[in-house]
Design brief:
Elements (H helix, E strand, L loop, with lengths): L6 E5 L3 H11 L4 E7 L14 E8 L2 E7 L13 E5 L3 H12 L3 E7 L6 E6 L5 E6 L1
Parallel strand pairs: 1-4, 5-8
Antiparallel strand pairs: 2-3, 3-4, 6-7, 7-8
């Protein structure tokens, strides 16, 4: 039997910063645990203090993350995104502005016919977010 299922985000050195940002931005969110790489881990002293494994929740939904000690030929892609259903238009505006700052807007906030207000962006860490108020 499967024990659990969660989304896993692999960063390349800014994992803890991203996790702190996300949990401060989304209500009912918290960091459950963070284990960090030591100087003797993969990547050596240059990766010391980065996230080996973290568990956190965003509005009660479980996520995991790490900082890869290895540089890969891939990164985050918008084809997989975190979808946030907001309680109010003001919340959508606040969260979208914070996530889009320093990132890239893929679809600016607007009415696209399938909801009252929707926006899609990649944050400064490369993670893709869709925000909706219907």
């Amino acid at each position: 039997m499967t024990k659990s299922v969660s989304t896993f985000l692999m960063f390349t050195g800014h994992g803890e910063e991203a996790i702190n940002f996300y949990t401060s931005l989304i209500p009912n969110s918290k960091i459950e645990s963070i284990t960090k790489w030591g100087a003797d881990g993969p990547g050596g002293p240059s990766k010391e203090g980065t996230v080996m494994r973290a568990a956190f929740t965003l509005n009660g939904v479980a996520f995991q993350a790490s900082d890869s000690p290895v540089k890969h030929a891939f990164d985050f892609t918008p084809s997989m995104s975190i979808f946030v259903e907001c309680d109010s238009e003001a919340e959508l505006d606040r969260v979208f502005a914070a996530l889009a700052e320093g990132g890239q807007t893929l679809m600016p906030l607007g009415n696209y016919g399938f909801s009252k207000k929707f926006g899609w962006c990649n944050d400064r860490f490369g993670v893709s977010w869709q925000l909706n108020f219907s």
